[in-house]
Amino acid sequence: MIILTGGAGMIGSVIAWHLNTILNRKDIIIVDNMRHPDQKNNLSKRSYEDYLDIDDLFPWLEKKQEIEVIIHMGAISATTETDFNKLLNQNIRYSQNLWRYAAQHQIPFLYASSAATYGGGEFGFDDNESELSKLRPLNAYGYSKQFFDQWVVQQVLAKEKKPPQWCSFKFFNVYGPNEYHKKRMASVVFHAFNQLKKEGEIRLFKSDRKDYQDGMQLRDFVYVKDAAAAVLHFLSHKDHSGIYNVGTGKASNFKALAESLVKSVDGNPNAIKYIDMPIDLKGKYQYFTEANIKKLKDVGYTKPFLNITEGIKDYATNYLIKSDTYL
Fold it and tell me: Would 74 disulfide with which of 6, 200, 238, 239, CB 3.0-4.6 Å?
């Protein structure tokens, strides 16, 4: 049996899709706290044994079920969240309690971290456990993920009881189907598509740094199907533990993203416009991210990642323009 927290979220629901359709697994317990009514659609095509609210998981676990792995994708993922008490409870304490349960019962523990932990990228984007203390996240969400990563590594170094396998996945800019409930936190691809459809234009943030032209900010955009596949690679490679970047390894600029989307839906090439960056993002906005994925490759993950053009083509033509947009 597989425990999948955050299973009604974007990455979680696509992990469930991968388990169902590629690995032929249906013995899944989905755990989440569906705040948006549309999230139920993320699970409408999935097969699973049961659904639990996040507050019901630990009482359920007291029954000592036979669990193969805990895949912990659940978290507050809004980079604009300023209430650190919420982040403390859901992104840190809940994760610590799950870790302790996995350690006590010797269950592999795979969990979501974030490239937001790298902050402005002053120290690069290397998934090196020994370099964690150097990182300076730009927002409270990134700090909550950084805190838990550091806590996990401290447990391991102190030789405290730990799960037989543990993996932290630093997801870079994930986009793709089933992100529709995320509102402002949905990917720029999703927002750009809706702008183009409703208003005939795509609005990108202007740069407020002299070393970047408008639209030339760079991010490592990774398609959600690829992100899910990278996580589930570790189900059959239980001898590997550590922190792993999940990205394509190649940064793309926002202008190229917008041009790829326009081309995929036969839109107007002159539809791209530039707007001022919101005040609450200034000073907290990553201008460059690019995953170093050598560690991921070194543990045997050789499946190629879709580039931005390939990922957007699948997302736009097979989901966004369809009447049923869900995977």
Answer: 6
Residues in the chain: 327
| φ, ψ (nearest 5 deg) of residue 101 | -65, -45
How many angstroms separate the CA atoms of 186 and 10, rounded? 9
The answer to whether the CB of 6 falls within 8 A of the CB of 57 is no
Predicted model pTM: 0.94
Cα distances (Å, whole numbers) of residue 118 to 35, 128, 222: 28, 11, 16
Residues 259, 260, 261, 265: what is their CA dihedral angle, to the nearest 10 degrees? 100
The residues annotated as belonging to the active site are 141, 182
Residues 6+ apart with CB under 8 A from 142: 79, 114, 116, 117, 119
Task: Retrieve residue 212's tokens.
Answer: 């970047």
Separation in Å, CA 71 to CA 26, 251, 264? 14, 27, 34
Phi and psi at residue 301, in whole multiples of 5°? -85, 105
The answer to whether 121 and 289 are in contact (CB under 8 A) is yes
Which pLDDT tens digit goes with each residue over 134-163?
999 989 899 999 999 999 999 999 999 999
Q: Say if CB 83 and CB 61 are below 8 A apart.
A: no
Domains and CATH numbers, the chain: 2-174+222-247+292-303 (3.40.50.720), 176-218+251-286+315-320 (3.90.25.10)
Backbone CA torsion sign across 297, 118, 146, 4: negative
List the chain residues with pLDDT less than 70. none
To the nearest 10°, report the CA torsion of 312, 317, 319, 321. Answer: 120
Which pLDDT score is estimated for 45? 97
